[in-house]
Amino acid sequence: MKKTDLSRRSALTSLGALSFAITVPAYAASGSAIGATIDTGRLGAPISPFIYGGFIEHIADLINDSLWSEVLDDRKFYWPVVKPEPAPAAAGGRRRSPARKWHPTGSDETVSMDPKGAYVGAHSPVIHLDGDNALGIFQSGLGLGKQAYTGRVVVAADPGVAVTATLIWGDGPAQRQSVSIATSGDWATVPLAFDCGAATLDGRLEITGTGTGRFRIGAVSLMPANNIAGFRPDVIARLREMDCKIMRMPGGNFISAYDWHFTIGDRDKRPPILDPVWNFAQPNDVGIDELLYMAQLIKAEPYWCISTGFDSPRSGAEIVEYINGAATTEWGAKRAANGHPEPWGVKYWDVGNEMYGHWQMGHIAPEQYYVKHNLFVDAMRAVDPTIYIAAPGGFADEMTTGQGIFIEGQPQVAIGSERDWAYGMLKNCMGRFDALQTHAYPPENKHYDLSTGKLVDIQPSLNEWSRGMAQRIQTMADCWDAYKKAFPVLNDGKIKVFFDEWAYHFGADYKGCLAIASGFHEFFRHTDFIEAAGYTMATGWLDISPTDSVISATGRVFQLYNQHFGVIPVAVTGTSPVPPPKYPIGGDQPSVNTGSATWPVDVSAALTADRKSLIVSVVNANEAVQTLKMTINGVSPAKAGRTWRLAAPGLDAQNKVGAAPQVTIQEGQFNPRAGTLTLPATSITLFEYKLA
């Protein structure tokens, strides 16, 4: 099969000669069959496995409370230990909010915060004792399983003081376990071990003392005994099952004020720092070495994001040396001393995140940032010239629809204007990046009005709604076409686009799966330059409780395509073109609506790597059943074929911990030579045609 250039426009408008006719099921509003043609002689650039990538960020407690197995919050006492205040209303975040804090078991006067003799951070709690009355601190609301726990406490005590740690999982005297803690006058790290007798979401850890004098606590940790170097084994197993090929971390907006120097070395000595981006006290436990080890555990390529906000080019060079430098270098030696003598060998580097946005710490004017970016890259590549650099893109569509700085009376950012950040990067930083980043979070049931620059409410059909993400992918592709005209060097295909933040709906339900599948189809139509994507957040592939996790509906649709779709795109044309643009072109309205010319269903096709099978994916985001007649040119399918369908009882179906899964991948069979097949309504189905 000859590989030829496959553009989306040519795929929509040209038909190949018919050589073998078959039918697969679909919907059309009229009830009549829609014709589709797959031309195996017209191939696109291979689909990068990085399209199925993920993105994780230290958004408040997100990483700490999902991947990491630490049970305690604020384990190094960023906050003072005081009596609990009335619980505020839930903040509505992805994880619990606010974080749990430590409180005194007695009155406030029994605990003071010592700034001078602090073990780590700004202060450490000091408990003042009064004899046989046990006094100390506690943290409640702990999610515990019926299993063994290990931990440690850093403690110092006056002579004669007896210190005890108690884990509590119920109200009865048999539902707790106490262990004595050996102490001295100096700080000492004492191991803890408990055998929790029952699961609870309201566990409690107390550290108390008796005697006269005082005792101090520097840090406390409590983890399930089966943790994998601090990570939850259940979550690691699920992420390994997801087979994520690339993981962007540790941010996101978070990194603009992030100082990586605080995230290496002894975890108990890493100071807790208030992250000003998300207004959350980060313990800095899940740092560089931890996250890179996690990437190894789940077999994902790490894509490391560094701060160009409050950080400096020198710091950029230092982190490259810490991660990739030999153990004989200054920072490589520090990494070796921290337990990893061999370089991590990180290839992909994200230099800055959304630095075009005023919400980023350290945001500066474009003409200044272009200089800063070049200084960063030069310093980093002086340490390791082999690294691959992705830079903040800020494409014109992204800058128009909410990621840029709105100017009254100028709602649309024009290609090549001063507000077109990507154009400025191409003009001023060419040669100092290998890819440009773009981000998209299209709002549901909204349209960006180009006349006012405001979002207006709309009532799209389910089919239109499901293409919301795909539409934004195409608006970016429109920008890329314009940039190629302004910068012809882009036509050689060497500079790529990383769609390294994207999400739509955030519902983790089957309805969202329809939108993700349509988004995948649009990615597959632009494989000539879209090289990677990072779903926000990769933890959204799972539903996670304090003690268990399952693959979510979102995770299942990723698995469906990652595991079963082909890798060499094949041209798809048809007899039912997509409707013309509904709104003026620009903003969130692309020059041509997305989807194959098989409206109202969307068809994508690709050959497997060995070219022995053709996989055809049909997304039918409609609530009526109709037929799609498909013609395959250039090959003769075998008599038997397989199907993989994402099955669900309804649009609101989800997979939740503790409940039977509602969204599953079901394998079946079909006859590739049959005349008509029927697909269920609102369905996502992959058909495998074995090639004779």
Automatic annotation (TrEMBL):
InterPro entries on file: Alpha-L-AF_C, ASD1_cat, GH, Glyco_hydro_b, TAT_signal
GO molecular function: alpha-L-arabinofuranosidase activity
Keyword Manganese applies: no
Protein keywords: Carbohydrate metabolism, Glycosidase, Hydrolase, Signal
Top-level lineage group: Bacteria
Pfam families, sorted: ASD1_dom (PF22848)
Region (Disordered): 86-114
Gene3D superfamilies with a match to the protein in the record: Glycosidases, Golgi alpha-mannosidase II
Gene Ontology biological process: L-arabinose metabolic process; polysaccharide catabolic process
Transmembrane region(s): none
Alpha-L-arabinofuranosidase C-terminal domain segment(s): 500-683
Top class in the EC scheme: hydrolase
Signal peptide: 1-28
UniProt record similarity statement: Belongs to the glycosyl hydrolase 51 family.
Protein name per UniProt: non-reducing end alpha-L-arabinofuranosidase
Organism in which the protein naturally occurs: Asticcacaulis taihuensis
